[in-house]
Write a structure and sequence with these properties.
Layout: H1 5-12, H2 18-39, E1 45-46, H3 48-57, E2 68-72, H4 73-86, E3 91-94, E4 107-111, E5 114-118, E6 132-139, H5 143-162, H6 166-194, E7 199-202, E8 212-213, E9 221-225, E10 228-232, H7 236-244, E11 260-265
Parallel strand pairs: 2-6
Antiparallel strand pairs: 1-2, 3-4, 4-6, 5-11, 6-7, 7-8, 9-10
Helix pairs in contact: 5-6
Length: 266
């Protein structure tokens, strides 16, 4: 399907709008992550809707308010050790090693010169509240093991969702998250070495699924993404077709459903 990219941008994220400012700030974060990954030879690529935007729009999907990247777990663990020392002062890594209340199993790099809150309310207990880029680890685990990890880790979300006092429940969430990271997940990874799979999927405890063949990911390709070039997986078009069908077809009623409320940027 052909479409007028300029008209889409003018409609959904005109220059100066809140969404436009958010996308500009996310692009700044991506540039800094890219510099560090290149310096340390850490392969990564755009994920999900961000990869779709790169292929279909040569940048952000005009109505999208997030940016996701992914990498293999060993590279993710190495990057988590590097980022706190090499990010510029205006950015911060959000991971359990830098924010004790951060319990998600993927990381964020946050902008310090903005503030917003996700609608689920969980991030009110976190240290950083700025615009972010998500970093997802991928690992080779069978779907049933991934499902099991989501069951064991899912109690953290349930604790917060049902708590009368989320702040008071946070110590239990921290303990359960640590028990999963240090005990349950290592056991599940050992099982994954016995029950091998030819797919990569999001890491254990991440309640999303995005599996593709191991051979579909690398070597990455660099494509135009807004004013920069960014990496996408080797078989991006094949994977987009599997995940979205005719991915070049625009949705019938596109529009931004912000992940966050009360957005302030300075």
């Amino acid at each position: 399907m052909s479409f007028d990219s300029k008209s889409l941008r003018e409609k959904y994220n005109p220059e100066g709008s809140v969404l436009w400012q958010m996308q500009e700030r996310m692009l700044v974060i991506l540039v800094e992550i890219d510099k560090i990954c290149r310096k340390h030879d850490i392969p990564y690529w755009l994920s999900g809707g961000s990869m779709l935007g790169a292929v279909r729009h040569q940048g952000f999907i005009p109505w999208d308010d997030d940016l996701d990247i992914e990498m293999l777990r060993p590279d993710f663990e190495r990057l988590m050790r590097i980022l706190p020392h090499e990010l510029p002062d205006n950015l911060a890594l959000q991971w359990h090693t830098t924010d004790e209340n951060y319990f998600y199993q993927f990381a964020k790099v946050r902008d310090k010169n903005s503030e917003l809150y996700e609608r689920n309310g969980y991030d009110k207990l976190l240290k950083e509240h700025g615009i972010w880029v998500d970093i997802f680890p991928l690992e080779a685990v069978p779907r049933w093991i991934h499902n099991l990890s989501n069951t064991t880790f899912g109690h953290t979300y349930k604790m917060l969702r049902t708590a009368d006092d989320m702040a008071g429940a946070m110590w239990k969430v921290r303990m359960l998250a640590a028990f999963n990271r240090n005990v349950i997940f290592p056991v599940l990874r050992l099982l994954s070495k016995v029950f091998r799979t030819k797919y990569y999927d999001f890491g254990l405890g991440i309640p999303y699924f995005q599996r593709s063949l191991k051979s579909d990911y690398q070597p990455v390709r660099y494509v135009k993404y807004e004013s920069i070039t960014a990496p996408i997986m080797k078989e991006a078009e094949k994977c987009l077709t599997y995940r979205y069908g005719d991915y070049m077809q625009l949705p019938k009623n596109p529009g931004s459903e912000y992940h966050s409320d009360d957005i302030r940027i300075w």
